[in-house]
Amino acid sequence: MSELVLVTGGTGYIGGWCIAELLHRGYHVRTTVRSADREKSVLDALSGEEDPAGRLDFAVADLTSDAGWDCALKGVDHVLHVASPLGVNSGKDPDTMIRAARDGTLRVLRAATSAGVKRIVMTSAANAASPSSYASEGITDETLWTDPEDPTLIPYRRSKTLAERAAWDFMAEQASGTELTTVLPGAVFGPILTKDNIGSVGIIARMLCGKMPGVPRIGLEVVDVRDLVDVHLRAMQSPAAAGQRFLATGEFMWMREMTQILRDDLGNEGRHVSTRQIPDTVVRLLARFRDPTLREITPALGRRNRHSTEKARTLLGWQPRSPRETVLDCAESLLAHGAVTV
C-alpha cells in the first residue's frame, strides 16, 4: 500500500490497535503523540505485532493546541481521528470538557481539509445517538441525535455529541473534496497490546482483581476493539461510507452477565470475580452520600436502550464477534500481559 494514514492518539487503546491493523494490511502509518518521548511506548506496544519495517512515523501534536497539526497532515491520504482529550471525570468543568472535545476535533478537520485528505473517519460514541435518559427501552439507529440540552446528560456524553455535531457542521461549510465518516462505538473491550494503557478494559481488570464487590444494574453494548478497528477501516475504504454515520455496537449485556462469564469460563483465575448485583437504591444512596462519582452512572441504571448496526452490516459488510468471546479474550489478555494479579 502506498497510502499514508494518520491515526490520532497513537498511545491510546483504540489508536494502538488501529496502527497495528493498518500496518498488518500494508499501509504506511503516521501517528500523533503529545510529546516525542511517548514514541517509545507506541513501539513497545507494537513489539508483538506487525513489524513496522519503516512504515510507521510520528508527529508531535496535541488536540489542545494548534501547533504541529499542519505538519502531521502533510502528505496524508486518510485520517482515523480516534483520539479524545477527555474522559469521564466529574472533577472537570463540563464546559472545559466540551471545548476540549469540540476544539480538538476542529483542529484535526481544519488541517486535514487544508492538506487535501481524501477521507476522515472520526470516532464518536453510541451515546451521541441515544434517546433522553427517561427512555429505557427500544432500538435506535444513526438517524437519532442525542439532545445535548438534556439536563441529565453526563459531561462526557454531551461532549461527544457536540464534538460530532461540530464536525458535521464544519464539513458542510467546506468546499474541499475531503469526506467525513463517523463511527459510533458502544463499550469497547477486547485484548490489550500493552499493560501500560488498558483504556476502557480497566473495568474487567477490576473485576478479575476482586476490586468490585458487586456490579450495578447497568447494561453495555460490548464491541470488540478488533471489530471496532475493522469497521473504521471499512468506513475508510468504502465509497458508500462517505458522509455517513455508522453505529458500531455489540450485543447488549448486563454487567452481571459479564461477571458470570468470567467466573464460569476462567476457572481458578476468575475466583475473585463477584457476581453480586448491587440494588439500584443502594447505588443511588452511595452516589448521594458517599461517592459523588457514582452520580454519573445513576441515569443508566436499568436502561435497555439498544442501537441497530444494520447500516454497518449492510453497507460495509461488518460482522462483529460475540460479546462472550470479547470479554474472555480481554480477560485472558490482561492476565497474559501481567496487567492483573489474581
Automatic annotation (TrEMBL):
InterPro entries: Epimerase_deHydtase, NAD(P)-bd_dom_sf, NAD(P)_dehydrat-like
Keyword terms: Oxidoreductase
Highest taxon of the lineage: Bacteria
Parts forming coiled coils: none
UniProt family annotation: Belongs to the NAD(P)-dependent epimerase/dehydratase family. Dihydroflavonol-4-reductase subfamily.
Pfam families (UniProt xref): Epimerase (PF01370)
The UniProt record lists the keyword Disulfide bond: no
Organism, as annotated: Streptomyces siamensis
Protein name: Aldehyde reductase
Location of the NAD-dependent epimerase/dehydratase domain: 5-242
